Amino acid sequence: MLPEYAHHLLLVFAAYLIVIASPGPSTMAIMGVAMKQGRARAIALALGVVTGSMFWAFLAATGISTILTADAGALLVIKIAGGLYLLYLAWKSARAALASDAAQMKVIPFASKATLYRRGVLLHLSNPKAVLGWLAIMSLGLQPDGPPYTLHAIIAGCAVLGLMVNVGYALVFSTAVMGRAYQKSRRWIEGALAAFFGYAGFRLLLLKP
Which tens digit of pLDDT belongs to each residue from 83-95? Predict the structure, then answer.
């Protein structure tokens, strides 16, 4: 029979898995990059997403994120930055949807792996929900009578799950089948991404603190 703290860990991992696997700005960005720019660049974006997530995890572990969430001004800055960044991604997708096939290659060149990695990091660093999410995860997993290694187990386990899910999206959506589907439906896919990022950006900006 599993000890009580092990049940808490499993609950944390299950909750984290549901959150990161659900459609959101990060997963949609990975899917889009995988289909139109290939596996390597999608993996770079995915690694950036995981890095940003782990940054908030370490802040939550040290208690800094608790101070941050108590400061309404700090959360407001993060919210505005996140909303504007999502609107920027919406604009880029809309631009790609409206461009001709020739212009798509010339005017909108492939982003470098380093740029995509930074984009993945920014997607998480500019998301106030990530701060609150990690606070919830830590409060759910850390128990007063738990072993001292529980915190390390939470961070390590979530990091592994984050890599598996995000890199998994990059691998699946970068297949030849998905690549052909993107070429055939490029405008529709880019339009859908623009609509999704635009909705998410406006929703974040209009969200009450």
Answer: 787 788 788 778 7
